[in-house]
Specification:
Layout lengths: L5 H12 L5 H21 L7
Helix pairs in contact: 1-2
């Protein structure tokens, strides 16, 4: 079984933890994850999305 990829983990976090947030907070969290977290983590050696 392959390890989950960073984008998959981010998607799972968004699906699980953001639905009950206020709309602005939800949008902010999703934006930060996609624009700030995902690019850094997927650029690290051994963590690149395949």
């Amino acid at each position: 079984m392959a390890a989950p990829r960073i984008p998959d983990l981010i998607d799972r976090y968004i699906e699980t933890h953001t639905p009950n947030l206020a709309p602005t907070n939800r949008t902010d969290q999703i934006s930060m994850l996609r624009k700030l977290v995902q690019p850094v983590w997927t650029s690290l050696p051994g963590l690149a999305a395949e």
